[in-house]
Amino acid sequence: MKKLKFYVLVLCSAMSVVSCDAIGRNKSALNELGKELAAVAGGAQKPEAVGSVAADAGDRLQMQKTPAGTPEQILRRTAYVASYNKETKLPNWVAWHLTADRTTGPAKRSGVDFEADADVPVPRAEDSDYYGSGYDRGHMCPAADNKFSKKAMEESFLFTNMCPQNGNLNRGDWNEMEMACRKWAEEYGGVYVVCGPILYKGRHKTIGRNKVVVPEAFFKVVLRLGDAPEAIGFIYKNTEGNRPKGDYVNTVDEVERITGIDFFPSLPDGVEKAVEAKADINEW
Asked: What is d(CA 208, CA 135) in angstroms, rounded to the nearest whole number?
């Protein structure tokens, strides 16, 4: 807006101080100034397009709005952003932009150790908390989404990217959803994924000396952009089971209601409202 006012002032000043003859001699220069003014004005008034959101504000699409009062420390990693909760010793959410090229590459998970995250305060989750707990160290951003970079792969094994997860779920239906997201990333040129724990009201089970909270359930929301933006949500109870993906489907609006998180708040309001209100697995 300041730039727009500047060009208006310059154009008006030029018109007021020169003669008609001078204007004629400098017509091309004034025309260029007028074009720049029109471009700035058009840019100031043009609604934000969905494509421009992806191109210019991809990092903002990884930022979710955590409920007020929830402990939060934002951790920016090579491949994902995590909102960490020092009270639960879990992420509130983990978000990343998944593209097909991130699922291939030289980085292997073999030989990579699970690690306590030195960027968060103690007490914090450690490997020993999971020993004998009966729960898997469940990735939120999966290792297989980070094959493009050794550093990204190592960061995916930080405990700030983990939750205690039922082993059958972790290696079964949750894993199937992770594979589906990689398929969608290839099919649609990329998707934005956000997932994390669901903690219902009341007391929560904990594991280990550091009292890492065990979630009652997990959520995952997926967004694709392009000419026909779509979003879909999923909720998985932290129990064993073997069910089709469609049984876990929810609208993003419903996942927001349950978690209190505002997903993809940087989307244009009209787009956000439209894509978060419906969920049809057949459109994926």
From this structure: 11
